[in-house]
Amino acid sequence: MTFLQAAFTDPGIITRENHRIALQKYPYDNVLFIPGVKCTTCSFVKPARSKHCRTCGGCIARQDHHCVWINNCVGQGNNHYFILFLCSIALLLTYGAYATQHLLSQLLQARQESANVFYSQYHSRPILGVQHWSTGLSWSDYFSLWGWAIVEDVCVGGVGLLSTLCMPMAWGFLGYHVYLMWAGMTTNESLKWADWRDDIADGLVFMAEEGAGEVSLVSTGHTERDIEPQLTCPASKRQILKRTPNGEPPNYSRSGDKLPYLDLKGEVALKWHRVKSLKEVENNYDRGFWKNVESVFKPVIL
Length: 302
Hints:
The chain is of the alpha+beta class. Helices cover 41% and strands 11% of the residues. It folds into three domains: 2-81, no CATH class; 83-177, no CATH class; 194-283, no CATH class. Helix 3 crosses helix 5, helix 3 (79-110) packs antiparallel against helix 6 and helix 5 (139-152) packs across helix 6 (154-183). This is Palmitoyltransferase.
């Protein structure tokens, strides 16, 4: 209950007061997040790894998803609380399933005579002896006796059924979020990577060749102080991916096309090659498992 209550806290809603801090938290990777993209609702440039949530009514820093369990977004401010909540609920459900099995097993062992009387109507001889109640039973009789035990102690049986049915879902969610930390992703980013994978399979994605020299990302109608503190970087360390509608390499020499990738002299600096597999694309937000865990459990307060 403590972690559940903590997960209700501010997920990292971006306002005009903390917008600058949010911009400085993560760089744009030019794959999932492009500099200069403006949120039409909040009317400011979206920081990298953020997403606007219509339910919460704002852009969320490092937004993972909007969770119906807690009726709140999971983002930079409460992701660690949400993971601890999943961990605690998974352990609680596991203990509930185990404790129920133990109690009902004791009930069956202690009430063998009652079970023999109940099942003697359908069997020529008693199916339970002095040994463990499950010894020598067929699968049909085994599950029938569990059904009898659940009906006999319906409160414990109901809790056990609920715990057993919900336990795999809780462990599945927890395992998925541990995987996301390992991969340096959020749920929102995993969906974006899935879109890139589909476009790559269709042959529509091109990447700038490494070693093209230092490039400057030209603003698309916004000033540099509104986008990202550092707009220049080595092209070999920052991938630039482009989708094309016809499967042809990007051509910025055509009339009317913008030149978003220029070298320091103002000339087109990038050459493109077709991406054949998502393995060729590096996730720039993956800093290694332990650093990813640290970024989740030691978030920057906006």
